[in-house]
Amino acid sequence: MRNKLLRILLILAILMVVVIIDFPVLKDLKTNIFKRDVSPVLGLDLRGGLQVVLQAPKGYNIDQETLQVAATILENRSNALGVSEVVFQVAGDNYIVGEFPGLENISEVIGVIKQTGMLEFVDVGDALLAPGSKITTDYQVGIKTAPESITPTPAPLNVGQPEVASPETSPVTVFHTVITGADLETVVVTPPKNPGDGYAVAFTLKSDAKGVFGAFTKANIGKMLAIVLDKEIVSTPVIRQAIETGEGAISGQGDNAYTYEEANNLRITLFYGKLPVALEIAESRVVGPTLGQASLQKSLFAAAIGFAIVSLFMLIYYRAPGFVAIISILLFGLITFALYLLIPVTLTLPGIAGFLLSVGSALDANILQFERIKEELRKRRTLFQAVDLGWSRAWPSIRDSNLATIITSSILFWFGSAFGATIVKGFALTLALGVGVSLFTALFVTRTLLNLGVKFFEKLDKKRWFGI
Prior knowledge:
Elements: H1 2-22, H2 27-34, E1 41-42, H3 44-47, E2 49-55, H4 64-80, E3 87-91, E4 95-101, H5 106-114, E5 119-125, E6 136-137, E7 163-164, E8 172-180, E9 184-190, E10 200-205, H6 207-219, E11 224-229, E12 232-235, E13 247-251, H7 260-271, E14 280-287, H8 289-318, H9 320-342, E15 346-347, H10 349-378, H11 383-419, H12 422-457, H13 462-466
Parallel strand pairs: 1-15, 6-8
Antiparallel strand pairs: 2-4, 2-14, 3-4, 5-8, 5-11, 7-8, 9-10, 10-13, 11-12
Helix pairs in contact: 1-9, 1-12, 8-9, 8-10, 9-10, 9-12, 10-11, 10-12, 11-12
């Protein structure tokens, strides 16, 4: 009895939580609890938007790490434009796939994608410039379409900060670029050396840049060297010592010490200097919002029809256990949808297909139990014995079939990640989550409800209520 009570309390607690998460009426309560918007995230095919396939120029061999860094930078840039839930992922050896659900300004995003990104180490002297500030430098270069190294010819160290005036504009401060991102050999995040210190970003320079950087840092100890991406300041570390070996580190101090996330973001920004090449758009596809909305409505309508037909079959063929199965499947749907909102999972048409297939797995687990129970009842077992033996004999089949499905889903998810097949990834993820939840509902919900109904149905006509 204690075990049954604990199971009932667990089911009720889970039901209360998933109701709060799933229903949009409680949107304000969800936001206060989870400190973020807990709403469904719709993918490209359900919401409309743009999909692009990017590639490096022909004849340019690019490694996987550089592709991944480029994908991260592009994702950050696109999100800065206000494009929500944008995803960039590496596909194969030479491609990056980008998806922009709900995109409205296509031309602006295409322009950002085609930018190479120029990283500069700029002498700003004692000027206090906040991250995000736009500046003008004396290094100008167009977007490169070939994998050539970009190393500027350094100006004399006494150039300073000249004022350039024109009849149309007021004087503009032009800062001197010491080296660019193409001069970086390696960039890594290093842990704190002492308690209380932050993380640091260590870098090494290529041989032809060591002399330039060494001479500059030796002459400017105590001054600031700005890290600038596309003429926008990312960070302004202070030069604390001469760096003549070509090896240095960037770190914050005190309240400005870097966390791991901040240091890693800076590492990615610096490392992007190793990719002085413009990515080309190999393919693009636009999905209209109207088409996406129609797909969503048809999917929901098809799911409702399917659930109604399955529920009718379960009630006719399995009677009382069938009603228990319907309750179990409803709770299965609520829990699964709650997980989609919490993770969050981007819902696409293949993802919905994976969910519907997992509903079949959940029903299969219930049907295996019910068939075993009917077999035991035909052998003149009591209802309590039939329920207990039916579960124990059905469990190995339920366990093995669901485990095989989860393994298959894992393989599909890896394939989708390795080759940029978002359709496969969405299907595999929703299927695996659904199968995992179906195991829980079969193990706790269906079994608990059947055990609770044993005393009630023991004296009733089992042929009528259990379909034997």
